[in-house]
Amino acid sequence: MTCNPKWPEIKSQLRSGQNFSDVPIVVARVFRRRLALFEKALHTMFRNAGKVIYLIRSIEFQKCRGLPHAHILIKLERDCVEPAHIDSIISASMPSSPEDADLIQKFMIHKHPRESDPPSDYCQRLC
């Protein structure tokens, strides 16, 4: 999970001319709250696999942009090995809602820029 500086909770706390790096305490608090909500959802997301045995997370800050992100490892009672169980958790289809489809296109599909384009902010930015 990676912090998004465009989250409304962060943007609403910025004064004119400020960006997310000017309010690190706000960024950290918003990220922590959203991470807690995500972890709560993880506890109920995999119903076919039983209870959560443990959840381990490591929070790091990106080198260039300074935004927090978390690596999460979750161990469940039972393995998800049946295709139906996996399909109940993971979906690779575009949502029918145009608003949701726009969000997927904007935030979840990774595209490398053409060689003639400037480097992308996310994967090719030079620090």
Q: What would your notes on this structure say?
A:
The protein is globular, with a radius of gyration of 18 Å. A two-stranded antiparallel ribbon has the order 1-2. It has helices at 8-11, 24-45, 83-89, 98-107, and strands spanning 52-61, 68-76. The chain has four helices and two strands. It has a domain at 8-92. The two termini are 21 Å apart. The chain is of the alpha+beta class and 127 residues long. The mean pLDDT is 85. Helices cover 34% and strands 15% of the residues. This is Helitron helicase-like domain-containing protein. It comes from Dendrothele bispora (strain CBS 962.96). Residues 1-74 form the Helitron helicase-like domain.
Topology overview:
Blueprint lengths: L7 H4 L12 H22 L6 E10 L6 E9 L6 H7 L8 H10 L20
Antiparallel strand pairs: 1-2
Total of DSSP H or I helical runs spanning 4+ residues = 4
Distance between the termini: 21 Å
Query: Level of helix content?
Result: 25-40%
On the 0-100 scale, what is the average pLDDT? 85
| Uncertain stretches of 5 or more adjacent residues | none
Largest sheet: 2 strands, antiparallel
Strand order of the largest sheet: 1-2
N-to-C SSE series? Answer: HHEEHH
Give me the Rg, rounded: 18 Å
Shape: globular
Structural class based on helices, strands and sheet pairing? alpha+beta
Number of strands: 2
Residue fraction in strands: 5-15%
Organism: Dendrothele bispora (strain CBS 962.96)
Protein name: Helitron helicase-like domain-containing protein
Domain Helitron helicase-like: 1-74
